[in-house]
Write a structure and sequence with these properties.
Layout (H helix, E strand, L loop, with lengths): L1 H25 L6 H102 L5 H16 L5 H22 L3 E8 L5 E9 L2 E6 L4 E5 L8 E3 L4 H12 L12 H7 L4 H7 L4 H28 L2 H12 L3 H9 L4 H11 L1 H21 L2 H30 L6 H56 L15 H6 L1
Antiparallel strand pairs: 1-2, 2-3, 3-4, 4-5
Helix pairs in contact: 1-2, 2-3, 2-4, 3-4, 8-13, 8-14, 9-10, 10-11, 11-12, 11-14, 12-14, 13-14
Length: 492
């Protein structure tokens, strides 16, 4: 198609070149007839060439038009294929990215699960190792195999993770079953050793921290662990106790008239946390601390009652009436109205108005100091307690530590005395800090109320000075004494 285009263009160029001389000759004088015939022949030839060129060009245009549509359709088809491939690629890329994210999340989750499994396995291993010390020695004859398997699970390197975990969970199930059977007591078959060293077969009855034994031949007694032996020692009792033990073990019910804890359980119950007991352990320094606490408590109660009473007596309506009278110059009604209330601000105003002829400013200062002194009462006491209580606690710490250190160089066989001195030091310090912390709250509260009262009194005093100064009448002019001035008398 390109060659055809080039041929058509060449024909057009030739035709244009042939017509150029002919057009030029039209402006020149006519040539001879021979020349005209030649020119006419050339013109006909050029015309024919032009017609052929135009015809070739038309055919070329038709061919281009016929080939353009399929090529456009094919190009569109290729573009659609490219677009579809691009979309498929983007979808695959997105899936790959999502897959990478999911893979990373799965890896993190697997790591978390592995950490959880390791943590649970460590807990189970620790539980299995401490299980023997938490149960009675006679129970190991029943649960000992499961305990040994659980212990060996963490020590045997040839076992897989799943097998180790199976052994540990099996032991956990055994422990749960044992706990269910232990509720209300349980009976187990086993062997024990009597006082003569003979191995005796029989049955154990585990009742909380106590284990009883009854042999097949009727031997009965308490179960006592033996050092270095997995078989417990059977210690028989006397009289009715022996018969009671045998009955409980054989029948699974009954009464055993004994306290296997030797009174320790009752003692622990009686000696639960008691504030008086802690106070006694704090040593002699606790009495000054108690006195400081009582003084602070009494001061706080008195101050709160005082503030409540003052708050009850406040009368804002009376304040407006008093200042209204003062503004109108009615001093006597203002004083009477102020004295008729218990408001501390109006007491300051009444005193100042009564003594305004002497010095209003000094009267206000005196009345303010007198009223605010009532608000300051008790605050120095609390300040002293807040400072003194930690120091007393520190003194208790020093005395307690001195007692402990004095015992270290002496009898080392009495560790209870050493720890008692340390406990005394800690208790005294704790009480001192608690008293100071608790006293600090009302101390700050009272200071805040004092500041509010001071602001109210000063504001009322300033307002009173402005009102009174505005209504003081000007002093009348004094008559001139001419006799006292001889010069003026002479002029007159």
């Amino acid at each position: 198609m390109n060659a055809t285009i080039f041929r058509a263009l060449g024909t057009l160029a030739f035709t244009a070149a042939a017509f150029a001389p002919l057009a030029a000759q039209q402006d020149q004088p006519k040539a001879p007839p021979e020349t005209g015939a030649v020119v006419a022949g050339l013109a006909d030839s050029a015309q024919q060439e032009l017609a052929r060129g135009v015809e070739a060009l038309n055919r070329l245009r038709e061919q281009i038009g016929a080939e353009k549509l399929p090529m456009a359709q094919q190009l569109t088809k290729f573009e659609e294929q490219v677009g579809k491939a691009t979309r498929d690629y983007d979808d695959l890329q997105r899936r790959a990215d999502n897959g990478n994210l999911e893979l990373a999340a799965l890896k993190n989750e697997m790591k978390m699960r592995q950490d959880e499994l390791s943590y649970v396995a460590n807990l189970l291993d620790e539980y299995a190792r401490g299980f023997e010390a938490k149960v009675n020695v006679c129970e190991m004859q029943t649960w000992g195999e499961a305990v040994d398997r659980a212990k060996q699970a963490s020590e045997n390197a040839t076992l897989g993770m799943q097998e180790k975990f199976d052994r540990q969970t099996e032991f956990a199930a055994v422990s749960a079953r044992r706990l269910g059977e232990a509720i209300g007591g349980m009976r187990l078959d086993g062997v024990g050793v009597d006082l003569q060293g003979n191995v005796v077969e029989g049955r154990f009855a585990v009742l909380g921290p106590v284990a009883l034994f009854c042999g097949k031949a009727g031997e009965a007694g308490l179960v006592v662990p033996q050092v270095g032996s997995a078989r417990p020692l059977i210690r028989p009792l006397e009289g009715a106790l022996q018969a009671g033990i045998a009955h409980v073990v054989q029948q699974g019910e009954g009464t055993v008239p004994l306290d296997p804890s030797l009174g320790a359980a009752l003692k622990a119950l009686v000696q639960k946390f008691n504030l008086w007991h802690v106070f006694q352990k704090g040593g002699p320094i606790m009495w000054p601390l108690l006195l400081a606490a009582l003084i602070a408590l009494a001061t706080v109660i008195e101050r709160f009652l005082f503030l409540a009473n003052e708050f009850r007596k406040r009368d804002h309506g009376a304040r407006e009436d008093v200042f209204g009278h003062v503004q109108r110059g009615e001093i006597a009604p203002a004083i009477a109205r102020a004295k008729g209330t218990g408001d501390f601000v109006l007491r300051v105003v009444a005193y100042a108005l009564e003594h305004k002829e002497k010095s209003l400013g000094n009267a206000l200062q005196f009345a303010q100091a007198r009223e605010l002194k009532r608000f300051r009462r008790g605050i120095p006491i609390l300040d002293t307690v807040i400072t003194l209580a930690p120091l007393l606690g520190l003194l208790g710490t020093v005395t307690g530590m001195m007692g402990s250190f004095s015992l270290i160089g002496g009898d080392m066989g009495s560790p209870g005395a050493i720890t008692g001195g340390i406990a005394e030091a800690l208790i005294a310090t704790a009480f001192g800090l608690c008293i100071a912390i608790i006293s600090l709250l009302p101390f700050n509260f009272l200071n805040a109320r004092l500041e509010e009262a001071t602001n109210e009194v000063q504001s009322a005093s300033t307002q009173l000075e402005l009102l009174v100064t505005g209504h003081v009448p000007a002093a009348p002019p004094r008559p001139l004494d001419i006799a006292a001035h001889p010069a003026l008398a002479g002029k007159e």
